[in-house]
Design a protein that fits this description.
kinase, ATP binding, binds acetylphosphate, binds magnesium ion, globular, acetate kinase activity, 408 residues, Acetate kinase, Nucleotidyltransferase, domain 5, alpha/beta, binds adenosine-5'-diphosphate
Length: 408
């Protein structure tokens, strides 16, 4: 029987899961829960044995979504008890200063992940819950947390440090941790082969734009910048998050709108971004609204693109140039309008998009710039699940993590 890893990837609006065959890297079974917490119906898709099962219903939170998913495994297969699972890998967004590496799931690490939820309010809670649910279901199988923030642990100090009072920053562990690191690491590691350039010296920008969105810059495969900070709120405009905003907006709202911390947290993390500006968090709905003449939606998309272009300029200056810009994640992989709008702004720098290639839908990694473009523009589907599966299997095989936790 094939050795497999079951990967649970909880995003802010989605759960992706995959039973990964370790030898081929293929997903033997996979699925998706999307539009969690949206005002419209959520969507489930479960694929196994060449069959696709779908369901639409409102999905209030990740726990409801995961329970429904386990029901799909029971009803449509495969039987998780007989699927050759050597590890369950759980994506966790925030590992803070505690987790530079993946960690075995134990009572202690579950509590640590929950404690870190203040630094990833939309993610760590549901991710810890997912580990609890799966541990109860498969108690004999080693379970591993793989952290988004680990890749950015070694960011240069100038990039990871806020210009905040040093004593306060040190006492409260306030620094830029970054997120989506498993994706930025995966993408930046496959780019050299896909674009046919040596990894050494290669200057890259990776745009992971999904519901959560972040940019990163890598030189020779090592991260030198990323847009998410202490929490996944900083940086680009997102489905429900403001991204960068003057922190004085917070003081202003406390003093003048008398908002409390929880109200502000929800306002900035859930009720802003695309959702807050248009009533829709999903870019597909936003494009539909624009076609119907909705001016708010048009402005929201303008802001969205403006921010992405700003980060490209910033990182290009920081690296002293850029060789490849890669689009990935839900929007980056599927939204040719956003890609075209971003690249249009880069035309004065010699970027040339092949419009036909950009408009072609595909699940394959591809270059969408013309051969004479000054910067290579690529679209590469991210595969956080495969990266998490490999890291989880390595720990299960070693029988211990780098913190001294051992499998039973
Ligand atoms: N076909 C599509 N066209 C445009 N945008 C899309 C398409 N498919 C997905 N998206 C966008 O991708 C987002 C989800 O991206 P994803 O990376 O799965 O998010 P997350 O992991 O943050 O939950 C959706 O909210 C939507 O905006
Ligand atoms: C960190 C983050 O925002 O993740 P996601 O995009 O999966 O919600
Ligand atoms: Mg995601």
């Amino acid at each position: 029987m094939a050795k497999t890893v079951l990967v649970i990837n909880s995003g802010s609006s989605s759960i992706k899961y995959q039973l990964v065959d370790l030898e081929t890297g293929e997903g033997l079974a996979s699925g998706l829960v999307e539009k969690i917490g949206e005002p419209v119906d959520g969507h489930y898709k479960h694929e196994y044995n060449g069959e696709k099962h779908e369901l639409e219903e409102p999905i209030h939170d990740h726990e409801q979504g995961l329970k429904r998913v386990l029901g799909f495994f029971d009803e449509y297969g495969p039987n998780l008890g007989e699927a050759g699972i050597v590890a369950v890998g759980h994506r966790v967004v925030q590992g803070g200063s505690i987790f530079p590496d993946p960690a075995l799931v134990t009572d202690k690490t579950i509590n640590q992940v929950k404690d870190l939820a203040v630094l990833a309010p939309l993610h760590n809670g549901p991710e810890a819950k997912g580990a609890e649910v799966m541990r109860a279901l498969l108690p004999e199988v080693p379970q591993v947390f793989v952290f988004d923030s680990s890749f950015f642990f070694q960011l240069p100090k100038a990039a990871s440090t806020y210009a905040l009072n040093k004593e306060i920053a040190d006492r409260y562990h306030i620094r830029r941790y970054g997120a989506h690191g498993t994706s930025h690491e995966f993408i930046s590691s496959v780019v050299p082969d896909i674009v046919g350039k040596p990894a050494e010296g290669l200057k890259q920008i990776v745009l992971h734009i999904g519901n959560g969105a972040s940019a990163s810059a890598e030189v020779s495969g090592k991260p030198v910048e990323t847009s998410m900070g202490l929490t996944p709120l900083e940086g680009l405009m997102m489905g429900g998050r403001t991204g960068d905003i003057d922190p004085a907006v917070v003081f202003h709202l406390i003093r003048n709108a008398h908002m409390n911390v929880d109200e502000l947290d929800a306002l900035f993390n859930k009720r802003s971004g695309m959702m807050g500006m248009t009533g829709y968090g999903d870019l597909r709905e936003v494009h539909r609204e624009i076609e119907e003449g909705n001016e708010d939606a048009k402005l929201a998309l303008d802001v969205y693109v403006h921010r992405i272009v700003g980060y490209i300029g910033n990182y290009t200056a920081q690296m002293g140039g850029v060789d490849v810009i890669t689009f990935t994640a839900g929007v980056g992989e599927n939204d040719d309008i956003v890609r075209a709008r971003v690249c249009e702004k880069l035309a004065p720098f010699g970027v040339k998009l092949d419009l036909e290639k950009n408009a072609t839908r595909s699940k394959e990694p591809r270059i969408i710039s013309t051969p004479d473009s000054s910067i290579v523009i690529a679209v590469i589907p991210t595969n956080e699940e495969l990266a998490i599966a490999r890291k989880s299997a390595a720990i299960a095989e070693a029988g211990e993590d780098t913190y001294g936790n051992k499998t039973a």
